[in-house]
Hints:
By secondary structure, the protein is α/β, with parallel strands linked by helices. The protein is built from five helices and twelve strands. The protein has a single domain, classed as Carbon-nitrogen hydrolase (Nitrilase/N-carbamoyl-D-aminoacid amidohydrolase), CATH 3.60.110.10.
Amino acid sequence: MAEHSTADAGRLHVVLVQAASSLDPSANAAALRDLVDRAAAEARERNPLVGEVLVVLPEVFQRDFGKPDTDLAAFAEPLDGEFVGALTAAAVEHGVSVVAGMFRAVEGGRPLNTLVLRRPDGTGVEYDKIHLYDSFGYKESDRLAAGEWKPVTVTVGGLRLGLMTCYDLRFPELARALVDDGADAIIVPAAWVAGDRKVDHWRTLTKARAIENTAYVVAVGQPAQRYSGHSLVVSPLGDVLVEADAGKAEEPTLLHAVLQTTDVTSARSVNPSLANRRR
Length: 279
């Protein structure tokens, strides 16, 4: 487990962007730049001394899943394509880190459901969704390839962030692997399909991942009516710090929260369940 001292304490302002993606990748790339502009401005207006900012957009913001029989390969893009270009440009222009989801083209194979994170200097990481949504009557694996077991963490604002996507939230072993790699916070972009019990599952699982790992969870979903909305941030002790309602596709919702490594250290002192594990 990674430990923090006062000297290396980190602080990160996160902006959750609960917004709907359309079926037009170019329109979504343009929307991303507008939303990052708005998010960065709001963050600095709320806290001029905020320091580092992370803007989190939902899963597959590059292009919505569309109908179940849609060939997503036709809309997948490479990492040097329009969407990642827009995301990187927005991060550099506004001096913030940005993460959002896309369908990533793979030569000779089905696309991947990929998260792309870029920092203000244009560097970053990618995470390929490991657990595809083959559940509740849907089969994501019919159209996409699963990522290899490769937990991805990255440092932003002095915090170590672990990345997962939507259905991954139902698999506690991935969250634990991220925390074992030093994650202070787990970032979960999603397109959590609406339906019976789904909001309850979303909120319960988000809180569980935070409590059992004594880590922040930042979970950002696409809005109603197709999806569940309810983007939220949960503290390392399980408190909901901020939460949206289901939202509307035509009205993006922006939420703000500040994450601090001192809160993670404090939670792990009060509740040392990670240190008490027996394996």
